[in-house]
Amino acid sequence: MADIRNYGIARHLRGTPTGYVVHQRKGRLVHQGTGQSFWFRPLTAVLSEIPVDDRELPLLFHARTADFQDVTVQATVTYRFGDPSLVATRMDFAIDPGTGHWQAGPLDQAAHLLTELAQQHALDLLATMPLTAALSTGLPEVRARMRAGLGEDTRLQGTGIAVLDVRVVALRPEADMERALQTPTREQVQQEADRATFERRALAVERERAISENELQSQIELATREERLVEQRGANDRRRATEKAAAARISTDAEAEQTRIKAQAQADRTRLVGAADAEAEAARMAVVAAIDRQVLLALALRELAGQLPNIGTLNLTPDLLTGAFAQLTGRTG
């Protein structure tokens, strides 16, 4: 918006780079263009300011499809005033010489014009399309129709308005219809989700089965190894018992053999001793047989005397002496 300063009977206007200012005095063009700066008298000056920057116009309107369903169209139109001098003659962009503000609402007028034209092109197209086609493929078609229609519109060209771009953001049906249309897709998505859940569960069951089989196989392998271990331990115990019995038998045989050898040695010693004693006795008897009887008797008495107890007092009677001499001589009384 232009900046106007008051200096008594004269005033000064300083424009902006995006504001196209038109200054007329008595029907003659005095100044025009962007970035203007000039003095003027408010009583004789007619001022207009047209913005030349790009402007965004959001649109939200309802349309009816070929199957009589209501849809909401959300779009945005980008435009600018391409010929500001022409716009100044077709629309009221006059500004107050004291404040610099527009005296009317030119931007609202331009927005109303663009909205009506854009709606008309969209409504004409959607009226020929069923709801499902409008929702599935209608978005680019509506955008193309609105862009072509606004770009070729003779009224806009005669007004000096240039449409730069049209963007259709959304085509939405009523809430109930939207939910109804979403139901098959939701059901399909739910079915896919259920199928994925079932597959995941089946995969989990399969993995659990595989784990169980692995555990069972491990238990079987462990039991088999334990059985082998028990058999090996039994075989080792039997081998140890056999070896122990064999060792005991060998030890017993060795002891028996040792005892037999000792007994044989003892018997041989006894036999040799007996033989020696017998030989000695035989030799002694042979010697005795060769000795005189009287000598033997004397020896016997000496031996007997050695065996008798100590005698303190010995009484010899004639009868005792007679009997002893008789035995010595071999005669009886």
Care to give the gist of this entry?
By secondary structure, the protein is α+β, with helices and mostly antiparallel strands.
Task: Give a written overview of the molecule.
The chain has two domains: 3-173, 2-Layer Sandwich (Tetrahydropterin Synthase, Chain A), CATH 3.30.479; 175-251. Helix content is 59%, strand content 21%. The strands form three sheets. Strands 1-2-5 form a three-stranded antiparallel beta sheet, with no helix packed on it. A three-stranded antiparallel beta sheet has the order 4-3-6, with helices on one face. It has helices at residues 84-90, 106-126, 131-151, 154-159, 175-290, 293-307, 318-329, and strands at residues 3-7, 10-14, 19-25, 28-34, 37-40, 45-51, 55-64, 70-81, 161-173. It is α+β, with helices and mostly antiparallel strands and 333 residues long. A hairpin with a 2-residue loop joins strand 1 (3-7) and strand 2. The chain is built from seven helices and nine strands, in the order ββββββββααααβααα.
What is the H/E string?
EEEEEEEEHHHHEHHH
Report the top-level CATH class of the largest domain.
Answer: Alpha Beta
- Helix-and-strand structural type: alpha+beta
Silhouette: rod-shaped
> Spans of 5+ residues with little confidence (pLDDT < 50)?
none
Span between termini: 200 Å
Main sheet attributes: strand count, strand direction, barrel closure? 3 strands, antiparallel
CATH superfamily membership of the largest domain, which one?
A: Band 7 domain
Secondary structure tally: strands: 9
The fraction of residues in strands falls at 15-25%
Percent of residues in helices comes to: 55-70%
| CATH architectural name of the largest domain | 2-Layer Sandwich
The fold-level CATH name of the largest domain is Tetrahydropterin Synthase, Chain A
SS summary, helix count: 7
Question: How many individual domains?
Answer: 2
* Major β-sheet strand ordering: 1-2-5
Cα gyration radius (Å): 75 Å
Average pLDDT, all residues: 85
